Amino acid sequence: MMTDKEIIALYFKRSENAIEQTDVKYGKLCHSISINILNDTRDSEECVNDTYLTLWNKIPPKEPNPFKAYICRIIKNLSLKKYEFNHAKKRNSAYETSLDELAECVSDGTEASDSVEFEELRTAINTFLSELPEKKRILFLRRYWFLQPVKGIAKDYGITEKTASMRLARLREKLQQYLQEKELI
Fold first, then answer.
1. How many C-beta atoms surround the C-beta of residue 92 within 10 A?
2. I need a labelling partner for 21 at 20 to 30 A (CA). Which of 54, 81, 112, 164 fits?
3. 94-181 is classed in which CATH architecture?
């Protein structure tokens, strides 16, 4: 398997092999992120293909570092846009559920833009995550960044769904306390 630098070099050479190598290395991850948001195979496939097109159009001149995070951000943003388009008046995905869970601890009931500046909140959450033990940080990110269902996370951790839900609830409580201490909510 090629390294990220080697794949990026292929984009700079305008080699179509860049997309193939990106798919080999990150295709499953992209599909996973997208399907967890959209719950639709066709829409997910479309978002993955749009991700590859976006990479093709942005590299060069960009030289993303880290490449994996750059790809994840693109697929997540494209999937969220597709989700919003498809569900303007509907509500029924893991995406909605995970955001509802998280909203309880980062909001005081007013709009985020009214209660705190977005950058302050982002910085505080990043700091909170960096202070967590690795396993807890990964658990949190899998649920609230990669939007993975609790059932799948529980299976991977070898625990029950109830245990996974409780751990996530405790992490949300800790985040809420942290943000209250920082006077951000």
1. 9
2. 81
3. Up-down Bundle (1.20)
Same topology between domain 4-86 and domain 94-181: no
Q: What sign does the dihedral 52-57-60-62 (CA atoms) show? A: negative
Query: For tokens 């290395």, what's the residue?
Result: 25
Rounded CA-CA distance 87/53 in Å is: 24
- Residue 74: CB atoms within 10 Å: 22
- Can you spell out the DSSP letters for 75-128? HHHHHHHHHHHHTSS---SHHHHHHHHHHHHH-SSS-HHHHS-HHHHHHHHHHH
CB 24 within 8 A of CB 10: no
**Hey, where are the domains in the chain?**
4-86, 94-181
Q: pTM for the whole thing?
A: 0.62
List, for residues 75-132, the tens digit of each pLDDT value: 999 999 998 888 765 555 565 666 667 766 665 444 444 444 667 877 888 899 999 9
Q: Does the structure show a pLDDT above 50 at 55?
A: yes
Q: Which CATH architecture has domain 4-86?
A: Orthogonal Bundle (1.10)
